[in-house]
Amino acid sequence: MKSHSVFCVSDHTGVTVEAVAKSVLAQFPALEFSLIALPFIDSPEKARAAAARIAATPGALVFSTLTDPALRAALRDSRASLFDVFDLVAPAVEAALGLAATPSGGRTHGMANDYESRMDAVNFSLALDDGLQPQRLDQADLILVGVSRVGKTPSALYLALQYGLRVANYPLTPDDLEQDSLPGVLLAHLPRLRALTLSAERLAAIRQVRYPDSRYASLRQCRDELAAAKRLFGQHGLPVLDTTRMSVEEIAARLRYS
Amino acid sequence: MKSHSVFCVSDHTGVTVEAVAKSVLAQFPALEFSLIALPFIDSPEKARAAAARIAATPGALVFSTLTDPALRAALRDSRASLFDVFDLVAPAVEAALGLAATPSGGRTHGMANDYESRMDAVNFSLALDDGLQPQRLDQADLILVGVSRVGKTPSALYLALQYGLRVANYPLTPDDLEQDSLPGVLLAHLPRLRALTLSAERLAAIRQVRYPDSRYASLRQCRDELAAAKRLFGQHGLPVLDTTRMSVEEIAARLRYS
User: Fold this and answer.
1) Is this complex scored with an ipTM above 0.85?
2) Which domain holds residue B78?
3) How far is CA A50 from each of CA A20, A80, A87, A107, B101, rounded to the nearest angstrom?
4) CA-based diameter of chain B, in Å?
5) DSSP-assigned beta bridge partners for residue B193
6) A82 assigned to some structural domain
7) Is B107 inside a domain boundary?
8) Co-location of B118 and B164 in the same domain
9) Which of A241, A252, B157, B203 has its CB 3.0 to 4.6 Å from that of A158, i.e. a possible disulfide?
10) Is the Cβ–Cβ distance between A17 and A8 less than 8 Å?
11) Average pLDDT over residues B190-213
Protein backbone atom coordinates (compact mmCIF):
# COMPACT_ATOMS: atom_id res chain seq x y z
CA MET A 1 0.00 0.00 0.00
CA LYS A 2 1.23 3.47 -0.84
CA SER A 3 2.19 5.37 2.30
CA HIS A 4 1.38 9.08 2.52
CA SER A 5 4.13 11.30 3.87
CA VAL A 6 2.81 13.47 6.68
CA PHE A 7 4.89 16.35 8.01
CA CYS A 8 4.16 17.65 11.52
CA VAL A 9 5.49 21.19 11.77
CA SER A 10 5.74 23.09 15.05
CA ASP A 11 7.65 26.05 16.46
CA HIS A 12 8.12 24.09 19.66
CA THR A 13 8.33 20.40 20.63
CA GLY A 14 5.69 19.19 18.20
CA VAL A 15 3.91 17.08 20.81
CA THR A 16 0.56 18.78 20.16
CA VAL A 17 0.68 18.73 16.38
CA GLU A 18 1.77 15.09 16.30
CA ALA A 19 -1.09 14.14 18.62
CA VAL A 20 -3.64 15.97 16.46
CA ALA A 21 -2.25 14.45 13.27
CA LYS A 22 -2.28 10.92 14.69
CA SER A 23 -5.83 11.32 16.02
CA VAL A 24 -7.21 12.67 12.76
CA LEU A 25 -5.33 10.18 10.58
CA ALA A 26 -6.52 7.27 12.74
CA GLN A 27 -9.89 7.93 11.11
CA PHE A 28 -8.57 6.93 7.71
CA PRO A 29 -7.83 3.28 8.52
CA ALA A 30 -7.64 2.29 4.85
CA LEU A 31 -4.57 4.45 4.31
CA GLU A 32 -1.00 4.22 5.52
CA PHE A 33 0.88 7.23 6.76
CA SER A 34 4.49 7.87 7.67
CA LEU A 35 4.97 10.80 10.01
CA ILE A 36 7.95 13.12 9.78
CA ALA A 37 8.37 15.50 12.73
CA LEU A 38 9.74 18.98 12.05
CA PRO A 39 9.88 20.58 15.51
CA PHE A 40 11.47 23.91 16.55
CA ILE A 41 10.67 25.66 13.25
CA ASP A 42 11.04 29.08 14.85
CA SER A 43 12.76 31.28 12.25
CA PRO A 44 12.00 32.26 8.63
CA GLU A 45 15.13 30.34 7.51
CA LYS A 46 13.97 27.15 9.18
CA ALA A 47 10.45 27.60 7.80
CA ARG A 48 11.81 28.04 4.27
CA ALA A 49 14.01 24.94 4.65
CA ALA A 50 10.99 22.98 5.91
CA ALA A 51 8.87 24.22 3.00
CA ALA A 52 11.58 23.18 0.51
CA ARG A 53 11.79 19.70 2.03
CA ILE A 54 7.99 19.37 1.92
CA ALA A 55 7.80 20.68 -1.66
CA ALA A 56 10.26 17.95 -2.68
CA THR A 57 7.91 15.26 -1.32
CA PRO A 58 5.08 14.60 -3.82
CA GLY A 59 1.64 14.24 -2.25
CA ALA A 60 2.79 15.31 1.19
CA LEU A 61 0.26 16.24 3.87
CA VAL A 62 1.29 18.88 6.40
CA PHE A 63 -0.12 19.45 9.88
CA SER A 64 1.12 22.64 11.50
CA THR A 65 0.73 24.53 14.76
CA LEU A 66 2.90 27.48 13.73
CA THR A 67 1.48 30.78 15.01
CA ASP A 68 3.83 33.39 13.54
CA PRO A 69 2.19 34.66 10.31
CA ALA A 70 5.55 34.96 8.52
CA LEU A 71 6.45 31.35 9.27
CA ARG A 72 3.02 30.15 8.21
CA ALA A 73 3.31 32.06 4.94
CA ALA A 74 6.68 30.40 4.27
CA LEU A 75 5.12 27.01 4.87
CA ARG A 76 2.26 27.74 2.46
CA ASP A 77 4.88 28.23 -0.26
CA SER A 78 5.43 24.47 -0.20
CA ARG A 79 2.06 24.17 -2.01
CA ALA A 80 1.36 20.93 -0.11
CA SER A 81 -1.99 20.10 1.50
CA LEU A 82 -1.65 22.17 4.65
CA PHE A 83 -3.74 21.65 7.78
CA ASP A 84 -2.95 24.57 10.04
CA VAL A 85 -4.52 23.69 13.38
CA PHE A 86 -4.76 27.33 14.47
CA ASP A 87 -6.15 28.50 11.13
CA LEU A 88 -8.80 25.82 11.41
CA VAL A 89 -9.68 26.24 15.09
CA ALA A 90 -8.94 29.88 15.96
CA PRO A 91 -11.65 31.53 13.78
CA ALA A 92 -14.37 29.60 15.63
CA VAL A 93 -12.90 30.70 18.95
CA GLU A 94 -12.59 34.30 17.74
CA ALA A 95 -16.24 34.27 16.70
CA ALA A 96 -17.35 32.89 20.07
CA LEU A 97 -15.28 35.40 22.04
CA GLY A 98 -15.93 38.35 19.72
CA LEU A 99 -12.21 39.08 19.81
CA ALA A 100 -9.35 38.70 17.34
CA ALA A 101 -6.52 36.30 18.18
CA THR A 102 -3.05 37.80 18.65
CA PRO A 103 -0.46 35.46 17.15
CA SER A 104 2.12 34.82 19.83
CA GLY A 105 4.97 32.38 20.14
CA GLY A 106 2.39 29.85 21.21
CA ARG A 107 4.60 28.75 24.06
CA THR A 108 2.35 27.10 26.55
CA HIS A 109 5.24 25.32 28.24
CA GLY A 110 8.61 26.51 29.33
CA MET A 111 7.66 28.33 32.47
CA ALA A 112 10.48 28.00 34.98
CA ASN A 113 8.10 27.59 37.90
CA ASP A 114 6.29 24.77 36.26
CA TYR A 115 9.61 23.14 35.40
CA GLU A 116 10.81 23.35 38.96
CA SER A 117 7.69 21.96 40.54
CA ARG A 118 7.81 19.04 38.13
CA MET A 119 11.50 18.40 38.80
CA ASP A 120 10.75 18.51 42.52
CA ALA A 121 8.00 15.99 41.94
CA VAL A 122 10.37 13.70 39.99
CA ASN A 123 12.98 13.89 42.71
CA PHE A 124 10.35 13.14 45.32
CA SER A 125 8.98 10.21 43.34
CA LEU A 126 12.47 8.76 42.90
CA ALA A 127 13.32 9.28 46.57
CA LEU A 128 10.14 7.43 47.60
CA ASP A 129 10.36 4.74 44.91
CA ASP A 130 9.80 1.13 45.92
CA GLY A 131 8.95 1.80 49.56
CA LEU A 132 11.96 3.99 50.32
CA GLN A 133 11.68 6.68 53.03
CA PRO A 134 8.22 5.71 54.32
CA GLN A 135 8.54 8.43 56.96
CA ARG A 136 7.96 10.97 54.14
CA LEU A 137 4.73 9.42 52.86
CA ASP A 138 2.74 12.25 54.45
CA GLN A 139 4.28 14.58 51.82
CA ALA A 140 2.97 12.51 48.88
CA ASP A 141 0.04 13.57 46.70
CA LEU A 142 -0.58 9.91 45.82
CA ILE A 143 0.87 6.59 46.95
CA LEU A 144 0.74 3.71 44.46
CA VAL A 145 0.60 0.19 45.89
CA GLY A 146 0.74 -3.20 44.24
CA VAL A 147 2.85 -6.31 43.77
CA SER A 148 6.30 -6.33 42.19
CA ARG A 149 6.44 -5.27 38.48
CA VAL A 150 2.85 -4.14 38.30
CA GLY A 151 3.94 -0.76 36.86
CA LYS A 152 4.14 1.45 39.94
CA THR A 153 7.44 3.17 39.18
CA PRO A 154 6.76 4.27 35.58
CA SER A 155 3.26 5.43 36.55
CA ALA A 156 4.63 7.44 39.48
CA LEU A 157 7.33 9.03 37.33
CA TYR A 158 4.91 9.92 34.55
CA LEU A 159 2.52 11.57 37.01
CA ALA A 160 5.44 13.56 38.37
CA LEU A 161 6.82 14.57 34.96
CA GLN A 162 3.52 15.30 33.28
CA TYR A 163 1.42 16.75 36.09
CA GLY A 164 3.91 17.72 38.80
CA LEU A 165 2.38 15.34 41.34
CA ARG A 166 4.50 13.94 44.15
CA VAL A 167 3.85 10.22 43.85
CA ALA A 168 5.37 7.62 46.15
CA ASN A 169 5.13 3.91 45.43
CA TYR A 170 5.10 1.01 47.82
CA PRO A 171 5.56 -2.62 46.81
CA LEU A 172 3.59 -5.41 48.44
CA THR A 173 6.04 -8.23 49.14
CA PRO A 174 5.01 -11.88 49.55
CA ASP A 175 5.33 -11.30 53.32
CA ASP A 176 2.99 -8.30 53.17
CA LEU A 177 0.51 -10.36 51.17
CA GLU A 178 0.20 -12.96 53.92
CA GLN A 179 -1.01 -10.39 56.46
CA ASP A 180 -4.59 -9.46 57.30
CA SER A 181 -4.17 -5.81 56.44
CA LEU A 182 -1.91 -3.52 54.45
CA PRO A 183 1.51 -2.70 55.95
CA GLY A 184 1.14 -0.51 59.04
CA VAL A 185 3.14 2.33 57.51
CA LEU A 186 0.44 2.78 54.85
CA LEU A 187 -2.56 2.84 57.18
CA ALA A 188 -2.16 6.50 58.11
CA HIS A 189 -2.43 7.43 54.41
CA LEU A 190 -5.41 5.42 53.16
CA PRO A 191 -7.18 8.29 51.32
CA ARG A 192 -4.13 8.83 49.12
CA LEU A 193 -3.47 5.16 48.33
CA ARG A 194 -4.18 3.94 44.78
CA ALA A 195 -3.91 0.25 43.97
CA LEU A 196 -2.58 -1.06 40.66
CA THR A 197 -3.26 -4.47 39.23
CA LEU A 198 -2.67 -6.38 35.98
CA SER A 199 -3.79 -9.66 34.48
CA ALA A 200 -1.72 -12.57 35.81
CA GLU A 201 -0.67 -13.40 32.25
CA ARG A 202 0.76 -9.90 31.62
CA LEU A 203 2.48 -9.83 35.00
CA ALA A 204 4.06 -13.24 34.39
CA ALA A 205 5.28 -12.12 30.96
CA ILE A 206 6.82 -8.97 32.44
CA ARG A 207 8.50 -10.86 35.27
CA GLN A 208 9.69 -13.52 32.84
CA VAL A 209 11.83 -10.94 31.04
CA ARG A 210 13.51 -10.06 34.31
CA TYR A 211 13.94 -13.51 35.87
CA PRO A 212 13.29 -16.16 33.21
CA ASP A 213 11.79 -19.42 34.42
CA SER A 214 11.86 -18.39 38.06
CA ARG A 215 9.16 -19.18 40.60
CA TYR A 216 8.72 -15.38 40.84
CA ALA A 217 7.74 -15.25 37.15
CA SER A 218 5.47 -18.31 37.19
CA LEU A 219 1.84 -17.81 36.29
CA ARG A 220 0.81 -19.52 39.51
CA GLN A 221 2.89 -17.22 41.72
CA CYS A 222 1.56 -14.16 39.86
CA ARG A 223 -2.04 -15.35 40.27
CA ASP A 224 -1.54 -15.98 43.99
CA GLU A 225 0.08 -12.60 44.59
CA LEU A 226 -2.55 -10.69 42.62
CA ALA A 227 -5.38 -12.48 44.43
CA ALA A 228 -3.85 -11.77 47.84
CA ALA A 229 -3.31 -8.13 46.89
CA LYS A 230 -6.90 -7.85 45.69
CA ARG A 231 -8.10 -9.14 49.05
CA LEU A 232 -6.03 -6.51 50.88
CA PHE A 233 -7.22 -3.70 48.56
CA GLY A 234 -10.83 -4.75 49.18
CA GLN A 235 -10.25 -4.84 52.93
CA HIS A 236 -9.42 -1.14 52.92
CA GLY A 237 -11.74 -0.12 50.09
CA LEU A 238 -8.88 1.17 47.92
CA PRO A 239 -9.60 2.33 44.36
CA VAL A 240 -8.04 -0.31 42.08
CA LEU A 241 -6.85 0.37 38.53
CA ASP A 242 -6.40 -2.59 36.18
CA THR A 243 -3.70 -1.40 33.80
CA THR A 244 -3.60 -4.51 31.57
CA ARG A 245 -4.63 -2.69 28.40
CA MET A 246 -3.50 0.81 29.26
CA SER A 247 -0.71 3.06 28.05
CA VAL A 248 1.27 4.92 30.68
CA GLU A 249 -0.51 8.16 29.62
CA GLU A 250 -3.85 6.56 30.30
CA ILE A 251 -2.77 5.11 33.65
CA ALA A 252 -1.50 8.53 34.71
CA ALA A 253 -4.57 10.40 33.51
CA ARG A 254 -6.89 7.96 35.29
CA LEU A 255 -4.92 8.11 38.53
CA ARG A 256 -4.83 11.89 38.35
CA TYR A 257 -8.62 12.06 38.37
CA SER A 258 -9.22 9.13 40.74
CA MET B 1 -10.87 40.08 35.30
CA LYS B 2 -13.66 37.67 34.46
CA SER B 3 -12.31 34.18 33.87
CA HIS B 4 -13.86 32.09 31.09
CA SER B 5 -14.60 28.47 31.96
CA VAL B 6 -13.09 26.19 29.32
CA PHE B 7 -14.00 22.50 29.26
CA CYS B 8 -11.62 20.06 27.55
CA VAL B 9 -13.56 16.95 26.62
CA SER B 10 -11.92 13.75 25.41
CA ASP B 11 -12.76 10.06 25.15
CA HIS B 12 -9.24 9.28 26.30
CA THR B 13 -6.59 11.00 28.44
CA GLY B 14 -7.30 14.51 27.21
CA VAL B 15 -3.63 15.33 26.65
CA THR B 16 -4.22 16.34 23.02
CA VAL B 17 -7.32 18.43 23.55
CA GLU B 18 -5.78 20.26 26.51
CA ALA B 19 -2.69 21.05 24.46
CA VAL B 20 -4.77 22.40 21.57
CA ALA B 21 -6.94 24.46 23.91
CA LYS B 22 -3.95 25.95 25.71
CA SER B 23 -2.19 26.78 22.45
CA VAL B 24 -5.22 28.46 20.90
CA LEU B 25 -6.19 30.33 24.09
CA ALA B 26 -2.61 31.59 24.51
CA GLN B 27 -3.45 33.83 21.56
CA PHE B 28 -6.04 35.72 23.57
CA PRO B 29 -3.66 37.22 26.13
CA ALA B 30 -6.19 39.83 27.26
CA LEU B 31 -8.52 37.15 28.63
CA GLU B 32 -8.29 34.78 31.55
CA PHE B 33 -9.32 31.16 31.26
CA SER B 34 -9.80 28.36 33.76
CA LEU B 35 -9.51 24.90 32.24
CA ILE B 36 -11.65 22.00 33.40
CA ALA B 37 -10.56 18.60 32.07
CA LEU B 38 -13.26 16.03 31.32
CA PRO B 39 -11.28 12.97 30.15
CA PHE B 40 -12.53 9.43 29.46
CA ILE B 41 -15.94 10.56 28.18
CA ASP B 42 -16.49 7.26 26.39
CA SER B 43 -20.19 6.42 26.86
CA PRO B 44 -23.47 8.21 26.07
CA GLU B 45 -24.18 8.47 29.81
CA LYS B 46 -20.87 10.18 30.49
CA ALA B 47 -21.36 12.49 27.50
CA ARG B 48 -24.82 13.50 28.75
CA ALA B 49 -23.45 14.14 32.25
CA ALA B 50 -20.64 16.26 30.75
CA ALA B 51 -23.17 18.21 28.64
CA ALA B 52 -25.33 18.86 31.71
CA ARG B 53 -22.35 20.14 33.66
CA ILE B 54 -21.31 22.38 30.76
CA ALA B 55 -24.90 23.66 30.25
CA ALA B 56 -24.92 24.70 33.93
CA THR B 57 -21.84 26.89 33.36
CA PRO B 58 -22.84 30.18 31.70
CA GLY B 59 -20.54 31.32 28.89
CA ALA B 60 -18.53 28.09 28.87
CA LEU B 61 -16.19 27.30 25.99
CA VAL B 62 -15.74 23.64 25.07
CA PHE B 63 -12.84 22.03 23.22
CA SER B 64 -13.46 18.43 22.26
CA THR B 65 -11.66 15.57 20.53
CA LEU B 66 -14.57 13.13 20.75
CA THR B 67 -14.86 11.02 17.60
CA ASP B 68 -18.01 8.95 18.22
CA PRO B 69 -20.90 10.79 16.51
CA ALA B 70 -23.37 9.86 19.29
CA LEU B 71 -21.10 11.32 21.97
CA ARG B 72 -20.50 14.46 19.94
CA ALA B 73 -24.25 14.91 19.46
CA ALA B 74 -24.78 14.62 23.24
CA LEU B 75 -22.15 17.28 23.79
CA ARG B 76 -23.79 19.65 21.30
CA ASP B 77 -26.92 19.51 23.47
CA SER B 78 -25.07 21.62 26.02
CA ARG B 79 -25.56 24.57 23.63
CA ALA B 80 -22.16 25.94 24.68
CA SER B 81 -19.58 27.31 22.22
CA LEU B 82 -18.15 24.03 21.01
CA PHE B 83 -14.80 23.68 19.24
CA ASP B 84 -14.64 20.13 18.02
CA VAL B 85 -11.08 19.62 16.85
CA PHE B 86 -12.02 16.79 14.48
CA ASP B 87 -15.02 18.63 13.06
CA LEU B 88 -12.75 21.58 12.36
CA VAL B 89 -9.73 19.67 11.00
CA ALA B 90 -11.10 16.46 9.45
CA PRO B 91 -13.06 18.05 6.54
CA ALA B 92 -9.89 19.65 5.20
CA VAL B 93 -8.08 16.31 5.41
CA GLU B 94 -11.01 14.51 3.77
CA ALA B 95 -10.95 17.00 0.91
CA ALA B 96 -7.20 16.58 0.41
CA LEU B 97 -7.39 12.78 0.48
CA GLY B 98 -10.68 12.53 -1.44
CA LEU B 99 -11.88 10.06 1.18
CA ALA B 100 -14.42 10.20 4.02
CA ALA B 101 -13.18 9.82 7.59
CA THR B 102 -14.41 6.80 9.54
CA PRO B 103 -15.07 7.81 13.15
CA SER B 104 -13.15 5.39 15.34
CA GLY B 105 -12.37 5.31 19.01
CA GLY B 106 -9.53 7.67 18.26
CA ARG B 107 -7.14 5.61 20.35
CA THR B 108 -3.71 6.43 19.12
CA HIS B 109 -2.05 5.15 22.28
CA GLY B 110 -2.59 2.01 24.30
CA MET B 111 -0.71 -0.45 22.19
CA ALA B 112 0.79 -3.13 24.45
CA ASN B 113 4.01 -3.29 22.43
CA ASP B 114 4.56 0.39 22.69
CA TYR B 115 3.86 0.21 26.42
CA GLU B 116 6.38 -2.52 26.94
CA SER B 117 9.18 -0.91 24.99
CA ARG B 118 8.65 2.29 26.96
CA MET B 119 8.60 0.45 30.27
CA ASP B 120 11.79 -1.32 29.26
CA ALA B 121 13.28 2.05 28.47
CA VAL B 122 12.25 3.44 31.88
CA ASN B 123 13.73 0.45 33.66
CA PHE B 124 16.94 0.83 31.67
CA SER B 125 17.14 4.54 32.38
CA LEU B 126 16.63 3.96 36.10
CA ALA B 127 19.17 1.13 36.16
CA LEU B 128 21.76 3.39 34.49
CA ASP B 129 20.86 6.54 36.44
CA ASP B 130 23.65 8.62 37.91
CA GLY B 131 26.52 6.57 36.49
CA LEU B 132 25.26 3.19 37.65
CA GLN B 133 26.23 0.06 35.67
CA PRO B 134 28.65 1.73 33.24
CA GLN B 135 29.36 -1.69 31.72
CA ARG B 136 25.90 -1.47 30.09
CA LEU B 137 26.45 1.92 28.42
CA ASP B 138 26.81 0.20 25.05
CA GLN B 139 23.08 -0.63 25.24
CA ALA B 140 22.04 3.02 25.62
CA ASP B 141 20.45 5.05 22.83
CA LEU B 142 21.73 8.24 24.46
CA ILE B 143 23.99 9.04 27.41
CA LEU B 144 23.44 12.38 29.16
CA VAL B 145 26.43 13.94 30.90
CA GLY B 146 26.75 16.99 33.08
CA VAL B 147 27.42 18.23 36.59
CA SER B 148 25.26 17.37 39.58
CA ARG B 149 21.64 18.69 39.45
CA VAL B 150 21.81 19.88 35.87
CA GLY B 151 18.63 17.92 35.01
CA LYS B 152 20.01 14.64 33.65
CA THR B 153 17.68 12.26 35.47
CA PRO B 154 14.32 13.90 34.63
CA SER B 155 15.40 14.38 31.02
CA ALA B 156 16.45 10.73 30.73
CA LEU B 157 13.19 9.52 32.26
CA TYR B 158 11.08 11.74 30.04
CA LEU B 159 12.86 10.50 26.91
CA ALA B 160 12.22 6.94 28.07
CA LEU B 161 8.56 7.48 28.96
CA GLN B 162 7.64 9.64 25.99
CA TYR B 163 9.74 8.20 23.20
CA GLY B 164 10.85 4.76 24.43
CA LEU B 165 14.53 5.69 24.26
CA ARG B 166 17.04 3.95 26.54
CA VAL B 167 18.85 6.88 28.11
CA ALA B 168 21.67 6.51 30.61
CA ASN B 169 23.03 9.45 32.56
CA TYR B 170 26.48 10.03 33.96
CA PRO B 171 27.39 12.74 36.47
CA LEU B 172 30.64 14.66 36.26
CA THR B 173 32.02 14.84 39.79
CA PRO B 174 34.48 17.52 40.97
CA ASP B 175 37.20 14.88 40.54
CA ASP B 176 36.16 14.20 36.95
CA LEU B 177 36.17 17.92 36.26
CA GLU B 178 39.84 18.24 37.20
CA GLN B 179 40.94 15.76 34.53
CA ASP B 180 42.06 16.50 31.00
CA SER B 181 39.39 14.38 29.37
CA LEU B 182 36.00 12.86 30.10
CA PRO B 183 35.97 9.73 32.32
CA GLY B 184 37.49 6.76 30.49
CA VAL B 185 34.28 4.75 30.69
CA LEU B 186 32.55 7.32 28.45
CA LEU B 187 35.20 7.51 25.75
CA ALA B 188 34.01 4.40 23.92
CA HIS B 189 30.56 6.01 23.52
CA LEU B 190 31.30 9.55 22.33
CA PRO B 191 28.77 9.60 19.43
CA ARG B 192 25.90 8.92 21.84
CA LEU B 193 26.94 11.42 24.52
CA ARG B 194 24.83 14.55 24.95
CA ALA B 195 25.97 17.28 27.33
CA LEU B 196 23.57 19.31 29.48
CA THR B 197 24.29 22.69 30.96
CA LEU B 198 22.44 25.46 32.83
CA SER B 199 23.14 29.00 33.89
CA ALA B 200 25.20 29.10 37.10
CA GLU B 201 22.41 31.09 38.77
CA ARG B 202 19.77 28.45 38.02
CA LEU B 203 22.07 25.63 39.09
CA ALA B 204 22.90 27.38 42.36
CA ALA B 205 19.20 27.94 43.06
CA ILE B 206 18.44 24.27 42.41
CA ARG B 207 21.31 23.07 44.59
CA GLN B 208 20.35 25.58 47.29
CA VAL B 209 17.01 23.79 47.76
CA ARG B 210 18.83 20.53 48.36
CA TYR B 211 21.77 21.70 50.50
CA PRO B 212 21.09 25.25 51.70
CA ASP B 213 24.11 27.47 52.18
CA SER B 214 26.58 24.73 51.32
CA ARG B 215 29.75 25.19 49.30
CA TYR B 216 28.13 22.80 46.78
CA ALA B 217 25.27 25.28 46.26
CA SER B 218 27.42 28.41 46.11
CA LEU B 219 27.36 30.45 42.92
CA ARG B 220 31.13 30.28 42.75
CA GLN B 221 31.25 26.49 42.95
CA CYS B 222 28.51 26.20 40.31
CA ARG B 223 30.37 28.59 37.98
CA ASP B 224 33.62 26.66 38.40
CA GLU B 225 31.99 23.29 37.77
CA LEU B 226 30.07 24.49 34.72
CA ALA B 227 33.19 26.10 33.24
CA ALA B 228 35.24 22.94 33.78
CA ALA B 229 32.47 20.82 32.27
CA LYS B 230 32.25 23.13 29.27
CA ARG B 231 35.97 22.71 28.70
CA LEU B 232 35.61 18.91 28.75
CA PHE B 233 32.59 18.99 26.41
CA GLY B 234 34.54 21.18 23.97
CA GLN B 235 37.54 18.85 24.14
CA HIS B 236 35.46 16.01 22.74
CA GLY B 237 33.17 18.10 20.54
CA LEU B 238 30.01 17.03 22.36
CA PRO B 239 26.67 18.62 21.46
CA VAL B 240 25.72 20.82 24.44
CA LEU B 241 22.16 21.76 25.35
CA ASP B 242 21.63 24.77 27.61
CA THR B 243 18.38 23.96 29.40
CA THR B 244 18.10 27.17 31.43
CA ARG B 245 14.83 28.28 29.85
CA MET B 246 13.45 24.94 28.75
CA SER B 247 10.63 22.72 29.90
CA VAL B 248 11.34 19.03 30.22
CA GLU B 249 9.26 18.42 27.05
CA GLU B 250 11.49 20.78 25.13
CA ILE B 251 14.70 19.31 26.51
CA ALA B 252 13.52 15.83 25.53
CA ALA B 253 12.35 16.87 22.07
CA ARG B 254 15.64 18.65 21.37
CA LEU B 255 17.74 15.72 22.59
CA ARG B 256 15.64 13.32 20.55
CA TYR B 257 16.53 15.15 17.35
CA SER B 258 20.10 16.04 18.28
Assistant:
1) no
2) 3-97
3) 19, 12, 19, 20, 28
4) 69
5) B143
6) yes
7) no
8) yes
9) A252
10) yes
11) 94
- Are A91 and A218 in the same domain? no
Residue of B89, B120, B124 best to disrupt the A interface, most CBs of A under 10 A = B89
Q: Which residues of B touch A40 (CB under 8 A)?
A: 253-254, 257
Q: Which residues of B touch A30 (CB under 8 A)?
A: 99
Q: Name the band, by pLDDT with cuts 50, 70 and 90, for residue B111.
A: very low
Chain B CB contacts of A115 under 8 Å are 246-248
Confidence of residue A256 (pLDDT cuts 50, 70, 90): confident
Q: Which of A6, A24, A130, A201 to mutate to test the interface with B (most CBs of B within 10 A)?
A: A24
Are both B91 and B171 inside the same structural domain?
A: no
pLDDT at B27: 85
B135 and B78 in a single domain? The answer is no
Are residues A77 and A191 located together in one domain of the fold? Answer: no
Interface test with A, best of B32, B247, B251 (most A CBs within 10 A): B247
- Residues from chain B contacting residue A157 (CB–CB below 8 Å): 122, 157, 161
Given A48, A71, A97, which residue is the final one in a domain? A97
**Could you report the per-residue pLDDT of B114-172, keeping only the tens digit for each?**
777 888 899 899 999 999 999 999 999 999 999 999 999 999 999 998 889 999 999 99
Q: Strand order in B3-9's β-sheet?
A: B32-38, B3-9, B61-64, B81-84
Say yes or no: A78 and A149 in one domain: no
Residue A1 pLDDT greater than 80, yes or no? no
Asked, for residue B9, whether it belongs to a domain, the answer is yes
Closest CA in chain A for residue B20: A16
pLDDT, average across residues A153-164:
91
Q: How high is the pLDDT of residue B1?
A: 61
- Over the stretch A78-87, which tens digit does the pLDDT of each residue have? 989 999 988 8
In a domain, A12, yes or no: yes
Number of domains composing chain B: 2
Our CA angle for B151, B169, B207, nearest 5°, is 30
Alpha-carbon distances, residue B223 vs B199, B201, B240, B243 (angstroms):
8, 8, 16, 15
Q: How close A212 gets to chain B, by Cα (Å)?
A: 15
Q: What is the CATH number of the domain that holds A201?
A: 3.40.50
Residues A73 and A46 in one domain: yes
Exposed / middle / buried, residue B193 (Cβ in 10 Å: 0-12, 13-18, 19+) = buried
